[in-house]
From TrEMBL:
Keywords: Membrane, Transmembrane, Transmembrane helix
Transmembrane regions: 23-46, 68-90, 110-129, 135-153, 160-178, 184-202
Superkingdom field: Bacteria
UniProt source species: Flavobacterium orientale
Protein name: Uncharacterized protein
Amino acid sequence: MENEKYLNDLSEIKNLMNRSSRFLSLSGLSGILAGTYALIGAWLAYKTIYFDTSTMGAYKNLVISEEAVIRLLVIATSVALLSLLTGILLSIQKAKKNNETIWNSTARRLVINFLIPLATGGFFILFLIEKEMLGLIAPLTLIFYGLACLNASKYTIGGVRYLGLTFIVLGLLCTWFLGYGLLFWAIGFGVCHILYGSIMYFKYERN
């Protein structure tokens, strides 16, 4: 009995330490939905690129019109904003369910560490768009998003670290296989988000 009580006390202490040092209100369902949004966005981007009469050339050497680029930016921005909004709303819902504070020092550290690589990558990609170096956009979005997840993973659920590493690997592969950016983008932001979101949901939330 004493050993059992001792183990329970240790488990409770560990849980308290995790709650104080890690943001545990990330929702796996938000990852699933973000992946779904990304796949829809990838399909819309595919239609824009390959069925737009203003684009020319084979799939590896496309010449995309300025109008098509703007539409692609609108699609990407819409997917990102919708995913962000969904993540915030579901995290708030999960925090309320667990009687946790959604915005605390750990959450602030998580956001800051996530945004530093992400914002850096965002500005870098904007510079590439200005220079019309569009072929590197897909791999760099994957790499910088992966770095953002990796950098923030120490403040949240451990699975985010592996998600970040997966994105980095996909980004490097995408750099090697230039011309297949949309495919890698769909695999990363779509399939991987759905997969990792499902793992998080069934591991931490389903009860």
